[in-house]
Specification:
Blueprint lengths: L1 H64 L29 E7 L4 E2 L5 H13 L8 H11 L34 H7 L3 E2 L10 E2 L5 H9 L5 H27 L23 H7 L15 H10 L2 E2 L4 E8 L7 E13 L1 E4 L2 E4 L5 E15 L1
């Protein structure tokens, strides 16, 4: 009897162990299944976001290519701000789309040290309070890209990149620039544009602070500089205000910016007298002694730093899907310059030295963020 009870107890213990092992196995399977479901859901969300982002970028390309005159870019163009006609598209329910001119900003890869100092000083007179000295910021930027600092403090002994900026985030790597200052400066700066020569901005879209600093950096009388800046700003006001009002008005019609005509074109950039007439300045090309007048001379200098068309565009995409409203994509579309080449029977043959070809509206940067 005792032997029978002993065997019965052993079977019970074995049964309990089997049940425990099966329970652990079932829990493991459940956890794996739950984890796989979450991963699948995450991957699906990422797929939806990636699909929306790529769709938005291709739509941005479409709107930019829809510009009837590629020789002139201004706030009244179909692509500028919230693209005209996008609101009526089905995609507008999934994401918001905004396109701005990247060449309305300062290209820190070729901007001169005196201009940068002038601009940073100007910002301090506005609502922007920078902790770092203007000369120190400008000198640090010049030194980082490998240039010689003329006015700022010495940068000897500081590790520098000795090459062009590839991203504005590199400002955070420069020890002498306060991180808060770097964030405040980013909206006015870019790393895209011409890689050589004088810095050029689009006169139709450039920020008023950048334009004011640019004109004040020219050689000439201070009162004439102020008069020239105010005349240009007064001329641009209707264009800027009309576009901003249309972009903010939820009931704005598709043709709300179609009557905006005030912008500068290439002919204006080739004729000082025509430019003066356009901005409402009296045409007096010569001074009292036969030399070029002060204001015409300022305009002549200004022409060297401005243009009226753009090749680089900033695209911001904001998700409107439930639960994903904080997801944002920022990308830059522009010309990617590559060596010209041709395919031959023995392989790829590159063209002569210096012959380059630009591929328009390539994706030059891609930054996804979550607010």
């Amino acid at each position: 009897m005792r032997k029978y009870q002993y065997h019965q107890g052993s079977v019970l213990i074995l049964f309990l162990w089997v049940m425990i092992l099966l329970s652990l196995f079932a829990v493991s399977i459940a956890l794996r299944t739950r984890l796989a479901t979450k991963i699948e859901g995450y991957e699906m969300n990422q797929f939806e976001l990636s699909y929306d982002y790529l769709t938005a970028v291709n739509l941005a390309r479409y709107f930019i290519d829809s510009d009837q005159d590629s020789n002139v870019d201004h706030p009244g163009d179909v692509w500028c701000g919230a693209p005209r006609g996008f609101k009526e598209m089905e995609f507008s329910k999934r994401f918001g789309l905004e396109i701005t001119d990247e060449e309305s900003k300062i290209n820190i890869n070729i901007a001169s040290e005196p201009f940068l100092i002038n601009f940073f000083d100007l910002l301090k007179t506005k609502k922007y309070s920078l902790k770092t000295n203007s000369k120190k910021i400008a000198g640090s930027i010049i030194a980082w890209r490998g240039g010689s600092v003329a006015q700022g403090p010495s940068t000897l002994g500081t590790k520098q990149k000795m090459g062009p900026f590839e991203s504005l985030d590199e400002l955070l790597l420069i020890q002498s620039i306060d991180s808060e200052d770097a964030e405040k400066l980013k909206p006015f700066l870019t790393v895209y544009g011409m890689a050589y020569g004088a810095m050029k901005v689009n006169l139709n879209t450039v920020h008023r602070y950048v334009l004011e600093a640019l004109i004040s950096s020219l050689s000439g009388d201070a009162s004439d500089k102020k008069r020239l800046f105010e005349s240009i700003e007064e001329y641009r006001t209707l264009t800027a205000n009309s576009q901003n009002t249309a972009a903010q008005d939820e009931n704005a019609t598709e043709n709300s910016t179609s009557n905006i005509k005030q912008f500068f074109n290439r002919d204006d950039m080739a004729n000082i007298a025509q430019f003066m007439v356009k901005v409402g300045l009296p045409v007096q090309l010569q001074g009292p002694y036969g030399q070029m007048g002060s204001v015409p001379n300022l305009i002549r200098q200004l022409f060297y730093y401005v243009k009226v068309n753009s090749d680089y565009f900033h695209v911001e995409v904001r998700s409107r899907l439930p639960g994903k409203e904080s997801f944002v994509l920022e990308t830059v579309l522009g010309a990617r310059v590559i060596p010209r080449f041709r395919v031959t029977p023995i392989g790829v043959s590159f063209g002569q030295t210096g012959k380059m070809v630009a591929i328009p509206l390539e994706i030059l940067s891609w930054q996804e963020r979550v607010f």
